[in-house]
Amino acid sequence: MQLDPNAIADYNQSQLEGHQRKLSYWTQEVATAEPIIRKLIDFQIAIPSWALGTGGTRFGRFAGGGEPRSLEEKMADVGLLHALNQASGAISLHIPWDIPTDYDAIKGLAASYSLAFDAVNSNTFQDQPEQELSYKFGSLQHVDAAVRQQAIDHNIDVIRHGEALGSKALTVWLSDGSCFPGQLNFRKAFGRTLDSLGEIYAALPEDWKLFVEYKAFEPNFYSMTVGDWGSSFLYASKLGPKAYTLVDLGHHLPNANIEQIVSILLNEGKLGGFHFNDSKYGDDDLTAGSIKPYQLFLIFNELVDGMDARGMNHATSLGWMIDASHNVKDPLEDLLQSVEAIQLAYAQALLVDRQALEEAREANDVAQAQEILQDAFRTDVRPLVAEARRRAGGALQPLALYRQLNVRQQLIGERGAKTIATGL
Amino acid sequence: MQLDPNAIADYNQSQLEGHQRKLSYWTQEVATAEPIIRKLIDFQIAIPSWALGTGGTRFGRFAGGGEPRSLEEKMADVGLLHALNQASGAISLHIPWDIPTDYDAIKGLAASYSLAFDAVNSNTFQDQPEQELSYKFGSLQHVDAAVRQQAIDHNIDVIRHGEALGSKALTVWLSDGSCFPGQLNFRKAFGRTLDSLGEIYAALPEDWKLFVEYKAFEPNFYSMTVGDWGSSFLYASKLGPKAYTLVDLGHHLPNANIEQIVSILLNEGKLGGFHFNDSKYGDDDLTAGSIKPYQLFLIFNELVDGMDARGMNHATSLGWMIDASHNVKDPLEDLLQSVEAIQLAYAQALLVDRQALEEAREANDVAQAQEILQDAFRTDVRPLVAEARRRAGGALQPLALYRQLNVRQQLIGERGAKTIATGL
Amino acid sequence: MQLDPNAIADYNQSQLEGHQRKLSYWTQEVATAEPIIRKLIDFQIAIPSWALGTGGTRFGRFAGGGEPRSLEEKMADVGLLHALNQASGAISLHIPWDIPTDYDAIKGLAASYSLAFDAVNSNTFQDQPEQELSYKFGSLQHVDAAVRQQAIDHNIDVIRHGEALGSKALTVWLSDGSCFPGQLNFRKAFGRTLDSLGEIYAALPEDWKLFVEYKAFEPNFYSMTVGDWGSSFLYASKLGPKAYTLVDLGHHLPNANIEQIVSILLNEGKLGGFHFNDSKYGDDDLTAGSIKPYQLFLIFNELVDGMDARGMNHATSLGWMIDASHNVKDPLEDLLQSVEAIQLAYAQALLVDRQALEEAREANDVAQAQEILQDAFRTDVRPLVAEARRRAGGALQPLALYRQLNVRQQLIGERGAKTIATGL
Amino acid sequence: MQLDPNAIADYNQSQLEGHQRKLSYWTQEVATAEPIIRKLIDFQIAIPSWALGTGGTRFGRFAGGGEPRSLEEKMADVGLLHALNQASGAISLHIPWDIPTDYDAIKGLAASYSLAFDAVNSNTFQDQPEQELSYKFGSLQHVDAAVRQQAIDHNIDVIRHGEALGSKALTVWLSDGSCFPGQLNFRKAFGRTLDSLGEIYAALPEDWKLFVEYKAFEPNFYSMTVGDWGSSFLYASKLGPKAYTLVDLGHHLPNANIEQIVSILLNEGKLGGFHFNDSKYGDDDLTAGSIKPYQLFLIFNELVDGMDARGMNHATSLGWMIDASHNVKDPLEDLLQSVEAIQLAYAQALLVDRQALEEAREANDVAQAQEILQDAFRTDVRPLVAEARRRAGGALQPLALYRQLNVRQQLIGERGAKTIATGL
Lengths: 424, 424, 424, 424
What we know:
alpha/beta, isomerase activity (chains A, B, C, D), Xyl_isomerase-like_sf (chains A, B, C, D), metal ion binding (chains A, B, C, D), L-rhamnose_isomerase (chains A, B, C, D), Sugar isomerase (chains A, B, C, D)
């Protein structure tokens, strides 16, 4: 579907008075509003191609309707999101599902939606129909060199697709691990995985990054071969300067202090990027900010502090991506909610009075340090985020407009009620 | 496939000398060997029909071969397990996948394998192709009375199938819950679920039990409407004397003291039965005893103590069933391992010197109480369990014989390498 | 110390312009401001006498200064908090530390501070110097009837002290449990504890409540005899209509859905009250709202919904109390922060559009239900809470005024730098 | 007290027949018995001086009797343990509590008990009475350079004490961290801690090791500055080749795979040693093997495999120490139980058929790999451990003999019933 070119402008006009009243109150009270708005405009969060359809669990999947049936339709969906919020200006592809048949056409399509190609993602956690050897017992860790080679070749193949489209990073998430004590020689599995990653690393273009994602458990339920930030850091350090750790918020043991991990990795120069989502129990892949919004804010608080300390560009130095699964919501609505929550956390982190915070810390004034963070978090920054969207050409309230325009109904009309997005 | 009638006897003969040497040492040292062996012979663990094929996760499924393609083949598989270990003498069916076309034929088949029909299981966590209304937002909890009625009718239908086969219990596991704060009115969801269960309860035959299974999370990732033993107990108490709580070992929050829960439920007369498995992180559905064998022993320690205190028959008063998922092992091998682990835990629990334990407790002699439990757990009871199998007509080492007979290869020959068990 | 009677008025005058600007924006945008302010004025949170001094861990305690040395000084501290925030109008005493020598004098003192006496708390988790029998192996669960009787008598004694002061509830938190498998016969421990509680229940005045608090772990590290809401509910149900479950936010296993527990208990008419605090790992006893403010809001969301559904008075139907430990902050500052966080969560819960929420739920509109809750949570309700304080005679910003008045320095001057509050 | 020199020999004689019957069965069945016995004889586990008295929690402490009142009495207690089990031949001192007044006398005393001095432990998690600056807000991480210097000096002082006694390692466990979001600048705290450790490292004698212990939480409840193995590894790597990570089994988040961590650290050459204990919820400091004995075995399985792969001496390459807290048991009984459990796990790990295990792994034979580990774990190796003790001059059943000799009663007689061990 195509958004009516005037839809956003008309909608914003209808909301403008209320918005300006809230915003004017804001700009009156807070001196830093303007630079925050400018940073928000620059800040883009990539949408993964697999998050555009309804997700599921091992217990089943309850399909929605109007899901994208092709790479082109996935790009149309992200283009639509980006038109609405002007903050989703990149798509992250998943190979083998998103292999273009015509690279130039796809690049042209991306340009028409103002979309960049974010990190490309390989897949060795499933067997594909045409695949020669099985990943049942792992891929880069496999005891059989032929299976490892197949997985290495696949990753290099993914790099090549990404190069052709203008991506600059490969994300490697490995489900490799074991389900039972005894199954794996941890030492050897580590060594084989490192060697395999080394071959992939060697095939990286000069200006690319390799993101090594870690995960504590699932789908292996005893050990994961890249199981925590410490392991990922070890791999990335041994691989070289182009290798980094990628943090998925749902990939930790219960009660982990993720913001501290983020701070350490950033300080070591080894933080590569994020998969945003939220969770209560495991890798629940829920909407960002829907369960623990304060944690999301605290993570951004470390990011802003750490990136500024290293003179890093907020928008471009790290990879920002959503990784979520939408079991009970319209995927596009869910993604709009996630992006909004991420923007709010970022805006609140920008609002923190860092000088006062450091002074409180130097004085061991714990209550005051808490007050400073809470003051930022308790502030209603929604008008700022809406203003950033408005200035960038997006909708003041993307979700409201999405509903007003009956987007999902139109998509169902175009694509059918029983479609299943590829790659799920 | 059919086991060669002499295969077990021949195998046992070949192992007999070593077995008897171990056993004689045992019976020489421990006075209680004989009654333990007799109790082990009586103790049967039901196999669920869905555990006979390769399981998977939301990230994929790596098929094995020779999986059962029909109810008849599932029964053959359980029959084979039972022939080997003489401890798997019941099958637990899952409707709609295991609906018999000819009840008498199925009952005859069961008799030929010496199998009973354990609790029947309904399914409202997936939509079936022909299903009118969707369970996407729950079944017995659903806001729409028509969906609830459909789920109620399905459960009553399951009871009818079970009646025709000789089952005596219905297990209701509900995936009902919510994925996001706000989604559900907990109060109303509880009330609707209770009302729905009430209608199912009303349809129970006089001599049946209703097992209300609880689970902390998954597939819903914010709340589960029957989320813990307290909730299940509430439902079961309000429903009436035929309703009981069913404990699945993998359905708890981290660090839960399951054995204490078991003790409380047993003491309240509301423990109905078990789904055995093991896990490290969540509902990992691993082989029983593969991760926390001491916990399994402690659970049986409470069971033996509590059942004896209430004069309950160990073998028949509660429902004993495995619920596991085999992602990387041959399902039949995995089930043989699970049954063995359960038998070992039961045997060790029977070995506990209960009088000495109570004396230590009365004296607050904590170190001694610990010694008494550890003494039982550290004892190698494998000869006892093997002897129980031998006397009952099973194999001394079922897994070893299973491999020696190349059972899986034969099943692949009969059924094919690419089969997928129904109901997965 | 005494607050200068004009201190608050002067301070508020100095802050008034800014406050009114924020408030007027608020009342302009939100129609429900006025009734929320009125409910906030009525809502009082009791302060426990043990939270007025510096807390510690088993690894040590780093004392602050100016801690209260007597019941009178504890009341002065709570009186000061209440003067500042007009929301801490009750004190919860801990026996044996807070036994008055002159009841009338203490009641007069309370009246002078406008303080009520909230639930009284017994203590059987420590041995007192003069105590005859030890609670090393439990109190109400103890195998020795004489120890149980001592603990029962102590609880009845606590009731008598409470009666004399005008309390209306007894909170029983038991550390009873076991540290090792085998130590305890769970069944018998449950029975003994129930019998002991029954004797305490029998001694309750007609208009009193008994709060049975549960806790998952610590200081016993294998089992707790009142370990979860299900257990507490069982005890309270068996005891009778005056017995209720008390929820301490830090007393759960990791990832527990506390708001659902609250909803169930409320719906069963068995929720008695709260101990507010926050935590990341266990019973960390941190400042309310400092770690998971959204969870605190979700709990209040259930409370408001459930209390309204049963026609319960928000302010008086349940017991509201803080239970925290201040290891690195000034206790009074910490308590001011906790009360503020609780008020904010309550105000946000009052702000939820319940009719719209129910409509979204009835329509299975999950995204909308989330939006409705987030809309309330993202709203900056601090002006409302400040206004409620102002109207009630408290300070617009209690913590800021506390610091401006140098309260802690004055207390150190009066009481000394090395005091240790009794009961720690 | 002094053990009657003949007590052990007499006791063993009384038990010999039963022991030899069990052992002969064993040596008949298992070819590897003899080398396992020899390795067990060499394997010594250090006892920390703080574990000889009754422990407690923040909720209180229930004293036992006969606790050691001085360094000399602590050494006598460890000497007694070692006489009984011949496996506790080292003591680990805690400074400032265990500072000798006469080094030569203490060394002579140690020699008389055949005790070595294991790693020495510094203490900066409490303030000592005479201490100038407080560690309330950390020690090596502190914002104030003077506090850091005080903590550095203390650690160097501890090294000097250890040198004088013949220790070869310093264990640094830091409680440094934060209780609230905002309190700490993670980056700067890491840097300050690293710098401080660097100064301590610089003061290490040539042949010493520095053990950097990590802990996930407690006593700080938001962040710990050495919070996980990844952090500890980072510090140790930056410090240099004499710095290692120390693993305390209770210092992890829920569900952590400790054995995998052990394997990775060992493989990186950065595993320094262990603090053995067991736990269900947090740092519960329970008797080793009392909660998760299979996990303890799996850890030893990795240790044996990894040390053999690197040609390391099992007994001397790593630091083996218990760290436990005895709240409800006689400390000496608890320690005897812990040492026994560790020896059993080690013996079972030695029993694993490593060649068969590697073959199963190479064949992806998961069921067989599990069988191989379980076969070792299910074997009753108690006769082997008893035989190792007997040959080394210890008692066949140390705990039984300890009780038979009424050791605790004698200690109470000598030291009094109300003693409190120093350093608790």
